[in-house]
Amino acid sequence: MKEIPLTLARLVAPLAVTLLAVPVGCGDGDEQDDDTTPGDDDTTPGDDDTTPDDDTTPDDDDTTPDDDSAADDDSAADDDSAADDDSAADDDTTPDDDDTGISEEDATLAGELWGLMADYTTWSAPEGWPTDPWLSEGHSGMWVEAYFNTELAGWDEAVTPTAPEGSIAVKENFGTEEADTLMALTVMWKQAGYNPTGNDWFWATFGPGGSVEAAGRVDMCIDCHSAADADYVFTATPP
Questions:
Q1: Which of 81, 138, 168, 184 has the least CB density, counted as fewest CB within 10 Å?
Q2: What is the layout of strands, in order, in the sheet containing 134-136?
Q3: What is the DSSP letter of 196?
Q4: pLDDT digits over 73-128, tens only?
């Protein structure tokens, strides 16, 4: 009877050791691994959870200024073309005085003269001159007809060597003897102090509608009329 407990003890002792060893190495440990080992889904930062690629990385559309800069280039081009247009507009609006060589002073005087001769067709023809158009070599073969205003018509060169201030002579220039097409009006006007070396005559050529084609100290007119009877005025015979 005393040997049975010993035998049981010998049998039970290894079993107890084995049973004690099993919990230490299995159940609790496995559960701890599952709970504490960081899983990919739980703790390891995933691409979807933490990587800011999609949300924070600036998109090309948002940050790349290509389109805006292209727009700037377009606007710059527009500005350049606008500048070209502006320069083209400047060329179009260049005063006619620059094209014809007429000074601002002479253009102003021509405008004043045009107003003074508005009723020239009521003026008288020079005494002894034809009353119908005649062929004038001095006016490039045009057919001309002349009119003197009151100041010039009443001038007596035998008494006064120079025509009075304000004298105006107008010549109509026609392309044919029938005088059916007025080509130009050539005019001389006495303006005190305008051109002392040319006896103060102001010369002008107008188109039929009043456009100023020449004005001022016109050499061709001065050269021709320097051979006149008195003070650049042809009195005895028409030129």
A1: 81
A2: 134-136, 142-148, 168-174, 182-190, 201-206, 212-216
A3: G
A4: 544 444 444 444 444 434 443 334 446 689 999 999 999 999 999 999 999 988 88
